[in-house]
Amino acid sequence: MAANVRQSVAEGRSDAIPIFLQDIPKLFHRKIIQPDIALIQVSPPDQHGYCSLGTSVDCVRSALVNSKIIIAQVNVNMPRTFGDALIHVSHVDYAVEDNTPLPEHGSKGAASAEETEIGRLIGDNLVEDGATLQMGIGSIPDAVLSALKNHKDLGIHSEMFSVGVIDLVKRGCVTNNKKKVHKGRIVGSFLVGNKELYDFVDNNPFIEMLEIDYVNNTHIVSLQPTMTAINSCIEVDLTGQVCADSIGTRMFSGFGGQVDFIRGAAESVDGRGKPIIALVSTTKRNESKIVPTLKVGAGVVTTRAHVHYVVTEQGIANLFGKTLRQRAYELIKIAHPDHREQLERAAFERLKCMPAP
Fold first, then answer.
1. Cα-flanking dihedrals φ and ψ of residue 92, to 5°?
2. One of 159, 208, 313, 330 is an active-site residue; which one?
3. Which helix (H) or strand (E) element contains residue 24?
4. Handedness of CA 198, 204, 207, 208 (dihedral sign)
5. Which residues contact 193 (CB under 8 A, 6 or more apart)?
6. Residue 341 among the catalytic residues
7. Please, what are the averages of pLDDT over each run of 10 residues along the chain (357 residues)?
8. Inter-residue contact 185 to 176 (CB < 8 Å)
């Protein structure tokens, strides 16, 4: 759920489906949702008649293969990507040519000092050489990528990736050579970025765009070497519950692939996976994002049993195997200093004892 629909959902004019991203194709394959028409955007066909879905394979392919009619907007600006992105013109019922430039989305300016420090902490302490990375879009993922310029043999297996990956590929940091499956390939399912990214993936066999029910499948994620999943959130309570889709009762986002990858990294078959939740410790209003309890009505996306690492600019907390009082102790340590005393008092009221290591 993005900014273009939040208001309509808040006013009751639209609705939202809480669902893991990897499960959305099931809605089409199991006929829970039965589309009559699929409106898709594709690249022009090649000499063999194959168009490409380009930037968005994710749930699109499952929708179109279950639609009665397929209408394609053929756009010369759509990059040609491979994997599950290809569709032959014989499957298209109607086509219209429209060469509107693709939407562009990037980080909102340079990363803040806090975001840069989060990137350094993760890069220096939690990302190993040879790790496989999953991360989203935004200042924190870009800050992490900027901190990996001296790493070697990194891989990418991520529902999406953005412009920040390009520099690491050019530097030789991202090779995907440690992967057992899709060796030597970046695996993604959709792209969010700008023309630099679209040009990078265009006709690039280094990139495989695959369906989301495969890319985000927890078992497939667990097979990746040293799977390191980096996700953000809105707030974390003192027991480790993570809210990432709402601000109180107001829906702000969707589940996305956070739980898919957090759990997949935790279950990594090589035992080296690192599930990471990263957030700046305070809001722009200097309110703590580490809170005694989640806001009334806030949704728990990642449960306290799923959470391992929580990172702010103040440090790294490892909650795996920790008791409630130990979790509170670790989380208070990485809260902003302005809020630690208040959080300590709140922890005592909730747990009936002082937080302790």
1. -90, 130
2. 159
3. helix 24-29
4. positive
5. 104, 105, 106, 137, 162, 163
6. no
7. 89 93 95 95 98 97 96 98 97 97 80 95 98 89 94 97 93 97 97 94 98 97 97 96 92 89 97 97 96 94 96 98 97 98 97 94
8. yes
